[in-house]
Design a protein that fits this description.
Layout (H helix, E strand, L loop, with lengths): L6 E6 L3 E7 L4 E5 L2 H14 L3 E4 L7 H10 L4 E3 L14
Parallel strand pairs: 1-4, 4-5
Antiparallel strand pairs: 1-2, 2-3
Length: about 90
């Protein structure tokens, strides 16, 4: 599938990250720890989605946000009033 048409949403919780991919029925979860985040980032790098959206959850999301930024795995957007953005140009 063309990466330009793949979108990923991540529900951030204290113990796990629930992930959904569209189009398709891809849904999975990883633990919200160093290993789970590393596994998720690796999978996202292979998937090359057009956008990853995740919620801002009072700081629980920060390790994932940092890992996505360092790996440049995908452009992402975090919801909430003080959401973060990483423009697509940053991947180049």
């Amino acid at each position: 599938m063309n990466p330009a048409h793949i979108y990923v949403g991540i529900d951030v919780a204290k113990d796990r990250l629930d992930v959904a991919q569209r189009p398709g029925t891809g849904a999975w979860w990883v633990t919200n720890d160093d290993q789970g985040i590393a596994d998720l980032v690796a999978r996202l790098k292979a998937l090359r989605p057009a956008l990853v959206a995740l919620e801002a959850t009072g700081g629980i999301e920060l390790p994932l946000v940092g890992a996505l930024a360092v790996a440049k795995a995908a452009p992402w957007r975090s919801g909430g009033v003080n959401g973060y953005t990483w423009p697509a140009q940053a991947r180049k």
